[in-house]
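Bumping with the actual sequence this time:
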Amino acid sequence: MKHETERRHLVAVIGDLLDRGLLNPAGGAVSMRLSDGNVLMSCTRLAFDRWKISLRDFIVLTPDGEIIEQTGGLGASGTPMHLDLYRMLPLAGAIVHTHAPHSLAFASLGLPVPSVTNRADTFGEIPCLHADDSKVKAGFLADPVLLDLPEGMVQRPEVAAVTLLEYRPQLEKEIAPRAAELERHGLAFTLYRHGSFVVGRQVEETTDLMFRLEETAQTALLQAQLTGGVVFPNRLYSPEQRGRVGATTAPRVSS
């Protein structure tokens, strides 16, 4: 079995994410770029097994998704997005995808996650990419088109169609132009009604980025409870904007 050290590294990371409640049976995936340019990625169905992971529960893929070593299952249906991000972002060394609850609340509404803590300011913008996955899947099943699916992923073309047909163009437009930002900080984004992605230069940094993303999302939701619906993104704050920045409703003022 190749890359045992890196496998142990990702097993530890998955344990940390589980301890913080950021991974659950709804899904998720963790991957890293290896020194030879290939990708080590957690396998599909781990979420359904409640993330009871062993060193064998990974797959090694080429940048194009061909199998180098398969000791467990295949890569998840989100494999193309991981591979696209590594292709678009040359400095990317690791990717964490979760369905963490607080950032998912923003994704469920198609809203960007606001930076309301100093630890989240380093992200820059945290956009939400949009796709009507139910409509795309139904349309694909009714009228399939040829998709170039990576060899090393679970063959669910109707699910992959959402990534390849809808999200790939958005990644090219919204995320790829920000590749140089990885010299200074990680990147994060959410997928509408789906979950969160963070991209960093190495595994520990990327794990911390997911903690930061969930922290700012949780804090923003708590702010809204305290203010009657108003969120104050600290990164954009100035006194004259108080009560208006990021607000969809005016703050309630007690008499």
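The tokens above came from a reply further down the thread. The longest helix spans residues 203-227.
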